[in-house]
Amino acid sequence: MNTEESFRKNFDELLDKKIAFIRELIELKLTSNEKARDLAAIELARRLDILNHAHQEAARVQGTYIPREIFDSKLEQVNQKIGSLEGWKSNQQGRQAAVATFIVIITVVVNVAVSYLLKK
């Protein structure tokens, strides 16, 4: 074997090893890409599940709220009842003042009458 043939044989062997190495790298890259894709799909599914649960919880909580129109209507009714009760209370206080004044007047008149009758 001459040097050129030996060189070619060594070159071919090196080239075959390099091609095999590059194939291994490509296969490793493809395998790692598949694993990364699978892990990403699992993570996305997990996040989607969390989002779905959060959405369901938000919808459940929102269902416990009453609409603004109903709240405003009920608030107006309560305010009217409070106004009515305040009017009634004011009326009662006025009546109590009148009764107290009447009692004072009667007491004074009775005292004056008793004093007048006792002097006679």
Helix content: over 70%
**SSE order:** HH
Distance between the termini: 169 Å
Low-confidence stretches: none
Number of folding domains?
A: 2
Mean pLDDT: 92
Radius of gyration: 50 Å
Task: Explain what you see.
The protein is an all-alpha fold and 120 residues long. The protein folds into two domains: 1-65; 68-120. 93% of the residues lie in helices and 0% in strands. The chain is rod-shaped.
Keywords:
120 residues; rod-shaped; mainly alpha
Blueprint of the fold:
Layout: H1 3-62, H2 68-119
Summarize the structure.
This protein has two helices and no strands. By secondary structure, it is mainly α.
